[in-house]
């Protein structure tokens, strides 16, 4: 069995080469923040209200959403990952605990680690338009958190663009005085944007909250994120989870690797990507009509 590399995937480079191989034009320009705000916790964590911000959709697996939304946390919601760019070759997204840590957060509340789980969770759209994320989605997200009296947030992305979206949202939350920690798997994207607190897990995309069907790893991952909320003393604080992926060690070499695509692969993946863009464009048009 091949030995897993200790170096994180450089998602910016990997996705640039992948989409160029599929025949798309100029590479995407990722966000970079010149200044990173930092908001300390307004009260001790054991008395704080902590909420989850997700990029998962409250619909079927083929759906995508385009507006920030909120849902109750009194019961487990029916959330799914619709993003085509998560690592579906090495993970299944069947265990919601890997991308939506509500159960782990409830256990932390029951143990007295936090004061309470926020009354609602919040959905943040995965938007390639950075201006839409910052000018439309982030203000809506901040307003909902303020309305619910949220002290701190856990932002859990899935695909590469998700990581950029939640990093931009974390900036808006910190500016509003709401402490934020990003729990993610794309180190280069989050650190390029710049966030106050980042918990990096070197896992396939779609597993930012822990390994699938491994409650202990999900609780440990959540605990590391809560430690960051409590312990960070300034912006750009990154903590790397010590946990390792227990599945196929070849996942890093195969994810979106243009060098491994056959001509038939390129045709099929280009067609699938174009079909997805057409559906998204139709939904956006219907929303603005």
What can you tell me about this protein's structure?
This protein is of the alpha/beta class and 289 residues long. The protein has two domains: 45-240, Response regulator (Rossmann fold, 3-Layer(aba) Sandwich), CATH 3.40.50; 256-289. 37% of the residues lie in helices and 12% in strands. The protein is built from eight helices and eight strands. The longest helix is centred in the C-terminal third of the chain and has 26 residues, at 263-288. 42% of the residues are buried.
Please specify the SSE layout and strand pairing.
Blueprint: H1 11-21, E1 49-54, E2 69-72, H2 102-110, E3 116-117, E4 120-123, H3 130-147, E5 152-156, H4 160-175, E6 179-184, H5 187-193, E7 197-200, H6 215-231, E8 237-240, H7 251-254, H8 263-288
Parallel strand pairs: 1-3, 1-4, 1-5, 5-6, 6-7, 7-8
Antiparallel strand pairs: 2-4
Helix pairs in contact: 2-6, 3-4
According to CATH, the homologous superfamily of the largest domain is Response regulator
Catalogue the unreliable spans: none
* CATH architecture field of the largest domain: 3-Layer(aba) Sandwich
- Total individual domains: 2
Order of helices and strands: HEEHEEHEHEHEHEHH
> In angstroms, what separates the terminal alpha carbons?
54 Å
Assembly of the depicted chains: single chain
CATH topology of the largest domain, anyone?
Rossmann fold
Rg, rounded, reads: 18 Å
DSSP helix fraction? 25-40%
Q: What's the count of strands?
A: 8
The largest sheet is: 8 strands, mixed
GO molecular function, one term: D-proline reductase activity
Keywords: Oxidoreductase
EC number: 1.21.4.1
Protein name: D-proline reductase subunit gamma
